[in-house]
Every structure is written in structure tokens, then in C-alpha cells.
Amino acid sequence: NAGVTQTPKFQVLKTGQSMTLQCAQDMNHNSMYWYRQDPGMGLRLIYYSASEGTTDKGEVPNGYNVSRLNKREFSLRLESAAPSQTSVYFCASSEVLSGELFFGEGSRLTVL
Amino acid sequence: DAKTTQPPSMDCAEGRAANLPCNHSTISGNEYVYWYRQIHSQGPQYIIHGLKNNETNEMASLIITEDRKSSTLILPHATLRDTAVYYCIVRVAGTGNQFYFGTGTSLTVIP
Prior knowledge:
The complex is a heterodimer. By secondary structure, chain A is mainly beta. Helix content of chain A is about 0%, strand content about 50%. Chain A contains no helices and eleven strands. In chain A, strand 4 and strand 5 (about 45-50) form a beta hairpin. Chain A is globular and about 35 Å long. Chain A starts with a strand and ends with a strand. In chain B, the strands form two sheets. A five-stranded mixed sheet of chain B has the order 1-9-8-3-4, with no helix packed on it. Chain B has a four-stranded antiparallel sheet with strand order 2-7-6-5, with no helix packed on it. Chain B starts with 8 loop residues before the first strand and ends with a strand. Classes of the chains: A mainly beta, B mainly beta.
């Protein structure tokens, strides 16, 4: 069991470029999430998907789009990257009822 | 959604109990208190959660006050590997299963 897998682990972009962070979970969880963590800060929720076919905004959705491709996969897209989006991005999943979040290892994104 | 307040940092001597407080004065009756920790830059790890009663598992104990406005996470015998940032989270009730993290408490276990 891999749990939650994120790709890529590291990425450097120039301002204005676009990219997609991929996330997949093999635990048959219903809910998936994207968080960002800036240096010295806690995690902030970007978007989440309560179940397949639904997505909702979190605390800091501006500048991002998401797609819940199927039950396993939840991607995060930056259409026009900005230096303010330099951060570590974490994907997580959970069974709706149990509440325990399982996190991926994170994706470090630098926007120059 | 309810918010939480935690001290930014704490120290604890190795082998002693670490008691990490959390205030959640606006918690609703059907909202749970969750604790997670993050070691270095890894993804956060689930520790424990509870609604109103005290809870214990192999990692920690959770003590929730009777009015549910605050809670304490107890690591009974702290080790150096417990050095981490600890997050107290109140689960938002309603559709979905959102978790909102604050800035947490940075716990340093001192040899």
C-alpha cells in the first residue's frame, strides 16, 4: 500500500508558467484535500473534494483549480504561477466518517 | 467554523510528560477535537481525536474539559522523536470533512 502519492516532489517554475500537481490514493477514501504550507506557517486548505464528482473551496483557493478525476485522483492546477505560490503542497485523503487524514510526502514548488 | 488557539512553542524534558494545551471556545456540540503532528517537513500525522470524553491510545491521551472549550494533549513519556509541531484542529461539521490547521505548537524535547 503506497497510501497517498504526490508528483512531482520538486518543481521550479517561472512566473506565468502553468503546472499540475498530481495526487493519488489507494485507500478507497471518499474525501481528498490540497493544502499549502509556507515557511514557518501552518497548513492552509486550498480546495477539497468531499466525494467523487464534488469540489469545494477552502481558505486560500485563489490562483488554483482542482479536478477530482475519479475516486483515486485529485489534481491541483496553477494556471499562471506567481512567486506568492512558492510553497510546499500537501495532498491528503480521508474516509468521510472516521476523520483521520492521511497525507502525502509533499511537493515543493518554487516560482521564480 | 470554530478556531483554535495554541501556544507557539513549548519545551519538555525527555522522559517527562508533555502537556500541550488548546483553546477552542467557539466549538459546536457536534464538532470533534483532533490532534496531528508534523515532524520536520513531512506530512502531518494523526495522533488522536475526541468529542467529549477523554481518549487514550498508544501515542497519547486527550483530555477535554467538561464545557469542551479547551483540551490538552498529553504525551506521557516524551522522547526526542516527539519533537514536532502539534496541531489542534476542530472538525467542521456539515458536508464534506474539512480540516483547518492553525500554526500549532512547536514542541522541543530536551535531552
